[in-house]
Every structure is written in structure tokens, then in C-alpha cells.
Amino acid sequence: MLTGANLWFHANTAPVGPGEARVVEVPIASDTLDIGSRLQHEGLVRNGFAFQVGIRRWGLAWKLQAGYYRLSPTMSAKEIAEVIASGKTATEKVAVPEGFTVKQIAERLDKTGICKATDFLAAAVPGSVSDVPLPTGRSLAAQSLEGYLFPATYVLGYGKQPVDYVQEMTGAFRLRVVDGLAGDLRRDAHTLHEIVTVASLIEREARVDKDRPLIASVIYNRLKKGMRLQIDATVLYALGEHKERVTHNDLKVDSPFNTYRHKGLPPHPICNPGEASIRAALHPAKSDYLFYVARPDGSHVFTRTYAEHQKAIRAIRGG
User: What's the CA angle centered on 169, arms 167 and 174, to 5 degrees?
Assistant: First the structure.
């Protein structure tokens, strides 16, 4: 038969009840009373003092470890104590799709609770990491690591410094691009920065894989002839927003990224391209195409002359 004290203990170490799991920090140098109070405040245990009594009964008094843990009110106080004693801190699986900008990555990390967007953006600047051989030109130095955060699915731990997350993504870029495509990069006449910038344009323009090498060929052909690239995606990057269609007024935006107004490549990549687009930038199709226009299904019609281009536009839009 349970005594009154035992009844109290069992009642106050039982699960709180239904509720979503959440990530809770156990700070360094926290004593058992601090941890119990924090868990009670978070609604994860019924009584912080009962939790403190429990960890002694369960032989866990000196085993609780600092860190971030994913805990649920459906867990008993003992189960929660065992998780904290295990040291198995919480992680978050974060998908970074091809074509995401640094800003979009920061917003996704913020949404998951891993890192504040402003902190990530402040860390994602040249000089914060040494994984990538970046150019030292003034145009990039004042900007960000746009283009060098490799798109992938990352398992990120809570409580790290924002630069650690940046380092993980640039580390993946080095592994998959700088090292993984080293032979192709050595044989190509363009710099890494030029290749990644071209790849970022391909990434934002292509919707069908087979179009990537052809879009690359159009970009290089226009650059060779001294033509403006006139790529809508660069205008949208300059505007800082996504739109289904770029207007004539949008084309007036005063920015070095506006390839309707400025010749050559933009100062740096406009997104973080995936490996397929980087390979297309390294291995463009051999063509004399200078224009392309998108079909409703996302594929493109490629043409050699402006007259052909206009004809393709009319055919697609029914004009």
C-alpha cells in the first residue's frame, strides 16, 4: 500500500498529459532544482520539486547533462530525466532546396527554431569560413556567401553558433563541388566564382533537367558576343521578391544584378545552385542559341535570332 508521500510522488511524476513535443535547453551548470523548475515552467513536469526528488530515487542526480532536448508532456518525469541523462540532444532535419537564396535558408532555419534568421545572415559572410576559395574582390566582400551554401538535407543540432551551420553548408559545397568536381574545374577556363554564378542563373531559369546545358550555352554565347544576358531571375533578385512575371517597370531597377541594364555576369550568384546546374555550367551544350522562352509546362524553346525568338513567344502565348 502506498503511503501518502509515495502517492504524492507518483502523482507528481506522472505525465502532464497530451501536448506537442518541444525543444528545451538545459543550461550548463544548472542544478537539479533549476532543471525541475524550468521543466515545470515549460509544462513538461507536474512539479519541479517532485522531479528533483525523483532523480535521486532513480540514480540520475549526477548524470543530467546540459544541452537541448526534445521533450513531451506525454512523457513521465522519469522518462524526461533519462533523456537528459543520456546526453542525446535534439536535432532538426532541415532541407535546403536547390535554388534557395541565403535569405530563404535563414528564414527556414528560423522557422524550425534552430537559429534566428538575422543571426544566420550575419554569419553568412565572406571571412566567416575557410572552406571555400572565394574571390577577394570588393563586389563579394560586402555581400554574402550566396551560391556557396550547398543545397542538401542537413541534420542540425540545437544550441550551436550560427557560423557552425554556415560552416556545415560550405563544407558540403567544398566536398561536392570543389573536391568532387575538381577535375572539371581545373579543365574549365572560367573561375569557380564565374561557374557558380552561371550555375545560379541556370538554377533559377531551368525547370526541366534537359534544358540546363542549353540554358548554359545561351548564357555563354551571349557573354561571348558582348550581349546583355537579360535574365528575369536577376531582376527578381535585385528586387528581392518573387513574381510570376517581370514587368517593364521592374526592368528599370537600378542594380548591378539587373542584367537587362548591365553587361556580363552579376556580381555574385543569385541563389545556391545544385550539382546538376553546376555540372551544366561546366559542360554547356554546343549550340548557337541566343534566346529562350518558357513553355507553360516549364520547358523552353531555344532560338538563334531575335525574329525566331519573337515568333516562339507568339506561338506560346497565342499572340
Answer: 90
Rounded to two decimals, what is the model's pTM? 0.87
Contacts of 306 (CB under 8 A, 6+ apart): 291
Q: Identify the residue whose cell numbers are 498529459.
A: 17
> What radius of gyration, in Å, describes the C-alpha atoms of the chain?
27
Count of CB atoms situated within 10 Å of the CB of 50: 19
User: Which CATH number do you get for residue 50?
Assistant: 3.30.1490.480
Which one of 21, 55, 89 terminates a domain?
A: 89
pLDDT of residue 140: 40
| Rounded Cα distance, 36 and 41, in Å | 9
Q: Which residues pair with 67 in a beta bridge?
A: 26
Q: What letter represents residue 92's amino acid?
A: E
Which triple of cell numbers denotes residue 110?
A: 528560423
DSSP letter, residue 296: T
Q: Tell me, what DSSP letter sits at residue 30? A: -
Assess whether pLDDT exceeds 90 at residue 133. no
Q: By residue range, what is the domain housing residue 293?
A: 188-317
* 3-state SS, one letter per residue, for 61-124: CCCCCCEEEEECCCCCHHHHHHHHHHCCCCEEEEECCCCCCHHHHHHHHHHHCCCCHHHHHHHC
- End of a domain among 150, 179, 208? 179
Residue 135 has pLDDT above 90, yes or no: no
